[in-house]
Amino acid sequence: MAEIIFNEVTVSYGDSPVLKDLTFVVEKEEFVIIMGPNGTGKTTLVKTLLGVKKPDKGLVYVLGCPVQKVCPHRKKIGYVPQFQSIDPDFPATLYDVVLTGSYANLGYVKLPGKEEKEEALRLIEEVGLKGMENHPFGRLSGGQQRRGLIARALMGSPRILVLDEPTAGVDLASQNQVRSTIQEIYKRTRIPVLLVTHDINPFLSLVTKIVLLGYGKHFVGGKEDIIREEILREVYGEYVRVIEVAGRKYVMTRDYHYA
Amino acid sequence: MLELFALSVIRKAFVASVLVGLLLPLVGNFALMTRTAFLGAGIAHIAFAGVAFGIMLSFSPLLGAFLFALLSVAFIWYAEKRNWITYDVGMSILFSFFMALAILFLGLTKQYSGEAMSYLFGSVLTVSTVDIILLFITVLLFSIFVGVFYKELFHIILSRDLALASGLPVDTFTFLMLLFMTISVVVSMKAVGALLVFGLLVMPSAAAYRLAFRFHRMILLSLVFGLISSIAGFFISLTLDIPSGAAIVIIAFLLLIISFIFSRK
Questions:
Q1: Is 0.80 surpassed by the pTM of this model?
Q2: Residue A259: what pLDDT?
Q3: Please, which residues 119-178 of chain B have a Cβ atom closer than 8 Å to chain A?
Q4: Residue B100 CB neighbour total at 10 angstroms
Q5: What is the C-alpha separation between A55 and A4, in angstroms, rounded?
Q6: What is the value of ipTM here, to two decimals?
Q7: What total of structural domains would you count in chain A?
């Protein structure tokens, strides 16, 4: 059975459907990009996958378990949420935040033990933040916070990694570090990755599937099916171009400044 | 000074001060971190309307306070959950409405009520054994709640989204926190006063927030500040013969100023 199945899923806010009859599957070792303009339901898709938002229609299965029912699938999903500003003085260290990734597996009452604490330190090192364990989380740069949250998501060896716009709102150097971290983790673990992003070019070499969400329509397929001007223009408009350099495709917007 | 402890009223007042000094800062940490601290002020004023209602109809003012405060908080929690209104707007409306009711009820009560004033301004010397038992039970239950669910509460404070994604029943925990805040404010009103209870709820935890880099240390520091405020305030009020609630809150404010001076944040 596939790791994730969305079968004719419709999700609405009030009377307005955000996702309509969406169907796709994610197999083992797949790297899936969820893309589309703002407000087309990317985060809603993630919330539905996590069981936080209930679909009006259709079924969602994660690791063989329907998310609408009580099942332990959430413990097996590593989740990096969309950027949220955190007070620089928030009383928690990077280590404290990473350790919260073990809480779902521990259940109620039980506190993190030696194993979880060692895992947190190992993952902090793995995302390149060794030596910053005791830094206040809110004082880390945006990129460091994202990498910290990726380490958090990897606690307990998840079977699926879901990242919601992990490179949004950080500077170019930090974007590069976050991208490299994601790429390295995927190459090492080969767990299925669902990445919500507008920043698709750096990931196109890894992508096995793209879910392209538009207003009232969606496209699902491999990158050869989706990274085409006629498809992208149906969703983004006429400004999108696909260029090929040294055998690799890049999605660009047409620049009229120097036309 | 110590010979005064031979009097049971002084012993009761001291125990009540210590319990309030522990309870309100403990609750205050969570109120501060979830940005619901203003609810504490609102609850105290809504509860005061309940006190006035009880006095007007000659039944237990404390029961009236519980009734008004719990119903209001349950309504605000539900309204926020349904996206009808935010906590601060909901509480601002009810705060004002219930103060209007309190004034109305006291106006309809033909005689002067010293008891109402003791709830409004606080008088630790008027606390009864029942008040102390209620305070003790609340401190005990809330401490157990925080001890058992510390990591769940920390998770919600850190990020509601992450807590939800982990499968935590965030709404239930939020409701329980509001319930404990409501009960804590109501049982502390007689000792500190409806007007001043907010100070002891917020100031020790705000001072601890300036100094602590980890949440469990913030909790411990807030308890230390709460205890210093309530015990020092108690003795100062006895020595200088000034209202206890005012003395306690002034000490808490001074500690907050000191924490700003020594903060490394």
A1: yes
A2: 45
A3: 148-152, 154-155, 158-159, 161-162, 164-167
A4: 11
A5: 15
A6: 0.86
A7: 1
